[in-house]
Amino acid sequence: METRLTGKVIVVGNNIDTDQIYPGAYLALTDPKEIGTHCLEGVSSDISPNFPQGGFVAAGRNFGCGSSREHAPIALLAMGAKAVLADSFARIFYRNAVNLGLLPIVCPGVSQKVKDGYTLTLDLDAGTVTVQETGEVLPCDPLGEQQKMILEAGGIKPLMRKRFGKE
Amino acid sequence: MHALEKILAKNSGRESVKAGEIITAKVDFAEINDLYLQTVYSFYEMGGEKVWDNERCAFVFDHYAPCPDVKSASNHKEMREFAKKNNLRFHFDVNCGVCHQVMPEAGVIYPGMIVVATDSHTTTHGAFGAMGTGCGATDMATILMTGELWFRVPEIIEVRLEGKAQKGVFPKDVILAVLGKIRADGAVYKAIDFTGSYVEELGVAGRMVICNMAVEMGAKTAYMQPNKEVLDYVSKRAVRPYEVQYTDPGYEYTESYVFNVSELTPQLSCPSSVENVHTLESVLAEGDVRLDQGYIGSCTGGRVDDIEVAAKILKGRHIAPYTRLVIVPASAEVMQECINKGYIQDLINAGATIMAPGCAACLGVHAGIIAPGEVCITSTNRNFPGRMGSKEAKLYLASPAAVAASMINGKITDPREYL
Description:
Chain A is an alpha/beta fold. Chain A has helices spanning 18-21, 32-36, 71-79, 91-100, 110-113, 145-152, 156-163; strands at 4-11, 55-59, 81-86, 103-106, 119-123, 128-131, 137-139. Chain A is built from seven helices and seven strands, in the order βααβαβαβαβββαα.
């Protein structure tokens, strides 16, 4: 797992639910690429086509609340996001993100301290997010042991394949 | 220990568990709804061959019931083939209804069990003294392969509901009032135990409404100690023997909230966040709220009790001109009972549109979508932007009685005027 990531950020608000991340009208879609084109369409349909590849989404509290739809992290990954930085996460979204290898990082206050297009460096070992434009260094909560174990394996799928002797 | 901790301990083969521990627990029943073809894909990607137990997992085709387009029909086809190939004992196709209604009816939900489903509203089953929690597609695939899932043992919040509801105040109003206070993230990663004299007296349907919306506060699961009505319900239906768990006297909750239900009046969750809760009276005091659609349905507000109160209010009356009222029974069993009791006829006479049992427009997929600029009052659980269609539409969450009363006038109306 990469522990130092640099990329540009887009900023969204509090209580961004999974309907806003991935609207119900597209739930029958199954191709990740196609799913990614609708990411965050409930906030703005301009986000996905212009998303900085390898970048971050910064959010307020309770990111990913609502429906358990796994399309939400699939869409974020397919759109090109590596991590979501937020004040807090809803639990099903958090689990789904970890399972698929999308980093859900609790970074209190981040959405107030960065603006769209800023460049951030997430350092998982140091537990920090550095904002290039302002030089500010924001602390992040460490990942739990279970979450780290899954993320380091590249998600739950490689772990299960190993458990069932498929690789 | 709390009853929920006893359930987790029993299913993980431990003497006891405590909040914050990571455990692996057996899942007694796993349900996959029809938004989750990804579960089948993840199952095969991870090397799955056969499900761990063909009597303990099932599909419920509820979100696209029946299918509105070729893509969802193709998804159903693939899931149906998976169910057939695995010879699943239970299969709930498009003729059944919403998973959280259909599963208890089929007897696969009972006290003391763990049920995991690919649906956030799985907290509903706390109504039966079960531990229910939602998960995503790939977590579900791991359950189908292994019969178990890892959990973090949650802290438990007590929400004590005391007193008797006044006329015009329904379980939906009670849970909206709780939600307005605890907020949309007040219970994230935690469990909510609903206690108190109001809960002790509450029937099965009302309990399901309250536990259902626990997830709107972020809760991992909800719990209510089963009462006589619950035990009567499950004893007629349960497909397995079960053991009711009880919380030890003196158990200390992480947090406790007390609500005096007797003081509550009808509530509304206003656009466009579930926590934006106000009394209906205070919203009316600001002026009329014109409506285009009313909606009664879903795993929150589509049961016999809900359709009954709407039918009683609308009997001999008619919805306002140029509005519509969509009724979606939560299950075929609910629909049948409502037909037998004449409620469906009364609602048709009043100008309502009756849909097939399922999730329908609750999540903006089909069967009652609203247009930009429209306003809908609904007995469902979420009013997020775009939830029922256009993100430029507005949704008010309310009791089924408030929905019915409002549609008579084409504007938000206090249901007490018609009760």
